[in-house]
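User: Show me a protein chain along with its predicted structure.
Assistant: Here is one chain, sequence first, then structure tokens.
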Amino acid sequence: MEKLANQKQTDYFWRKKEFVSFVLSILVFFIHISSFVPYLGGDDAIAILNQNLSFFFKESITRFAVPMYFILSGIAFFRDYDNGKYISKIKKRFFTLCIPYLIWNTLWMLFEIICSYTAVSTLFVGRKMFSLSIPNVPKGIFLFGSNLPFWYIFYLIVFVLLSPVFDLLVRNKKAGIAATVVLSVLSIFEIGGSYRLNYDAIVFY
């Protein structure tokens, strides 16, 4: 009976996570929507309405979506975590995170190369030209250089690798609180922060 109850709780947790993730995906879509951009200029009623709608959908109700994704990812990873499961979790995330990350980064980089150095470029005007060089190729594949939205996946991979460190900080309350305060201060004052060093992501995760 206890095993059945635990299974029901587990199933309920994943159903809730799927629903929340779906809602968050819609909010992320609104963050990146560009439909308002051509209509933001001017001071007539339509332009003002578009400005307010743009702010509402892109800067207000949607901005908690990405932090919530990090929180959910941390919960899903650590809900049954112990250091004995580290290797098995690494193997699982290798197939669910690393492989898709590398494949999509590579495909997008190849797309940028094609759009930069072939006749196809005439069909995709206004794109920044890809600089084909030895540093830029590994950057495009491993550091989302051509696929900027995948900064999120990059962080998840790094966080999974660092999970023993996070587990140690969570178990040691003083160290965890101190690390959270330091990271929050660095984030608030934007000290060295970027897509590759996003303190907020660490705190939320």
